[in-house]
């Protein structure tokens, strides 16, 4: 039941977009097609070419179970420490409820620890009540109020 982790490749992009679109909120925001829309390709290349971003695939028996993005951010606060932002977390709906999401987060937190980050943070849509409860079960605290401005 253990997962292996690797950096995503361009060949994974269609599957990644499908994972992101496979929920009630995501399906309204994503455009699933093969080959992937050019904007997804450009975003993938920007992430892939950044030293502070990692697009990660979680696999079991060479099958993609889930994905997430890690962004490492330097801050002047907390004595100039680094933070790890975890975003775009998805587990294939066929594999939910089996502990894979927990494995993915524990792995991501370990990566942040190895990079000497002092904080791991994430955002989640308030409509994702199951996800919010899951994050709390991992020890995340909802200590701040988040704001977004769509442009």
Automatic annotation (TrEMBL):
Pfam families: Acetyltransf_1 (PF00583). PROSITE patterns: GNAT (PS51186). CDD domains: NAT_SF (cd04301). Gene3D superfamilies: 3.40.630.30. Keywords: Acyltransferase, Transferase. GO terms for molecular function: acyltransferase activity, transferring groups other than amino-acyl groups. It comes from the Bacteria. Residues 3-151 form the N-acetyltransferase domain. InterPro entries: Acyl_CoA_acyltransferase (IPR016181), Bact_Acetyltransf (IPR050832), GNAT_dom (IPR000182). Transmembrane segments: none annotated. PANTHER family: AMINOALKYLPHOSPHONATE N-ACETYLTRANSFERASE-RELATED, AMINOALKYLPHOSPHONATE N-ACETYLTRANSFERASE-RELATED-RELATED. This is Acetyltransferase (GNAT) family protein. It comes from Pleionea mediterranea. The lineage of its organism: Bacteria, Pseudomonadati, Pseudomonadota, Gammaproteobacteria, Oceanospirillales.
């Amino acid at each position: 039941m253990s997962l292996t982790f690797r950096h995503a490749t361009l060949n994974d992009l269609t599957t990644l977009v499908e994972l992101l679109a496979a929920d009630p909120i995501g399906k309204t925001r994503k455009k699933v097609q093969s080959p992937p829309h050019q904007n997804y390709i450009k975003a993938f290349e920007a992430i892939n070419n950044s030293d502070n971003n990692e697009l990660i695939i979680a696999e079991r028996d060479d099958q993609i179970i889930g994905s997430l993005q890690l962004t490492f951010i330097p801050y002047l606060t907390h004595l100039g420490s680094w933070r790890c932002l975890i975003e775009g977390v998805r587990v294939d709906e066929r594999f939910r409820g089996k502990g894979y999401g927990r494995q993915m987060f524990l792995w991501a937190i370990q990566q942040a620890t190895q990079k000497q980050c002092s904080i791991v943070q994430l955002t989640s849509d308030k409509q994702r009540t199951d996800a919010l409860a899951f994050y709390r079960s991992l020890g995340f605290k909802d200590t701040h109020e988040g704001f977004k401005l769509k442009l």
